[in-house]
Known about the structure:
- Helices cover about 60% and strands about 0% of the residues.
- It has twelve helices and no strands.
- The longest helix is centred in the first third of the chain and has 18 residues, at about 20-35.
- The radius of gyration is 17 Å and the shape is globular.
- Fe (ii) ion binds near residues 55, 56, 84 and 110.
- Fe (ii) ion (FE2) binds near residues 55, 56, 84 and 109.
Amino acid sequence: MERHELFRLVRLVEAKDLCTAAHTWRVTLYMQALAEAMGIDPPAVKRLMRGAVLHDLGKIDIPAAVLRKPGRLTGAEWELIKQHPTFGYNRLVALGEDDPFVLNLVLSHHENFDGSGYPNGVAGEDIPLEAQLFSVIDAFDAMTSFRPYRKENDQASEDEVLEELLTDSGTRYAPQVVEKFVSLARDRNLKWIRKHFNDRISMNALITPESLEELDALASHHGRPVKDD
Ligand SMILES: [Fe+2]
């Protein structure tokens, strides 16, 4: 798939589900940081970042009224939401996507380590590593960004979220991934990602990177160890 097509699709998701606008770019940069910290080689890091950009593509196929519904979802609506990984996977296959990193991440990003996730309820090492990585990142971002009672960029809040990840290690999340991500977040300053891609910024003002290279440039500029600050 051409890169401009990729970004066009992601913008469609953003337009439909405003919550994902800054989220997309944050999780992509967290993925880069985590994959690099795990020693994954640069071409594979790029592929993982591409999967992160596309993770919620299937939300295109969910009605906006359901995605943006302020109240409790009905059983039928929740069943529909649970199909978004499959919808995204099917769309990508139809578009000619053949990178297993991307397809696995999109299809399995809501699977839980204990088999309680969706859409297929796979467990443990049957969940592809790329999806195991993304599931921890997605949860970290949701917990550090979307709870109004949390103070953004507050270190204590981040510590609390990391503790929650550790609590759910082995049930929701793969233990070795949680261990890596928690030590990464404690050793390096990842706050710039939340600061730069902030949900309080209006859609119009939001910087939308034109390419993964632009994200790379941002990361190399900001992603310094905490002790060097
Ligand atoms: Fe999702």
